[in-house]
Design a protein that fits this description.
The chain is of the alpha+beta class. Helix content is 20%, strand content 37%.
């Protein structure tokens, strides 16, 4: 039995779970999420908890057991608390501003970069040098943060670029005069 997979998932107040064949739908105060579950995995709701089990002991089912339990637990946490990531802009003249739902980034290019977030993602740019990304889907929040970071990743000589706030960028030594 998987050490991660056998742990039940506690349902917080206000979270509803609907099971339909191989689909799990979870609704909460922060939104609703649904996910397709592999046919080897069984999900059931009992006593305010979600239990994830497998129907066979094949290697494939064993590999999916803990992963599926973690994905469902992330869905429960997302619809009840939500997820967020913070990005920092480091560099002279680098700034971000919201124009309605769109995020406009000045990153040292000859033109501004305009990013339109997917549905379910909320962006905020406090102070113009930080970007806050929040939503109920952990995977989507991470993808959006990685996409925005890819517009100007931090470079190793001066450290300029977009980085996660908790990211440490190792700097290289530049050229030295002989």
């Amino acid at each position: 039995m998987s050490k991660v997979g056998r742990n039940p998932i506690a349902l917080p107040a206000g979270v509803k779970v609907a099971l339909d064949k191989n689909r799990v739908s979870i609704q909460g105060p922060k939104g609703s999420l649904n996910r397709e579950i592999p046919s080897e995995i069984l999900v059931k709701v009992t006593d305010g908890q979600i239990e994830v089990t497998r129907d066979s002991d094949t290697n494939y089912a064993r590999a999916l057991h803990g992963t599926t339990r973690s994905l469902v637990a992330n869905m429960v946490k997302g619809v009840s608390q939500g997820y967020s990531k913070e990005l920092s802009l480091v560099g002279v003249g680098y700034r971000a501003e919201l124009q309605g739902e769109r995020l406009s980034l000045q990153l040292g290019y000859s033109h501004p970069i305009v990013f339109i977030p997917p549905p379910g993602i909320k962006l905020d740019a406090p102070g113009g040098v930080k970007i806050s990304i929040s939503g109920s889907d952990k995977e989507l929040v991470g993808l959006v943060a990685a996409k925005i970071r890819s517009f100007r990743p931090p470079e190793p000589y001066k450290g300029k670029g977009i980085r996660y706030t908790d990211e440490h960028v190792r700097k290289k030594a530049g050229k030295t005069a002989a």
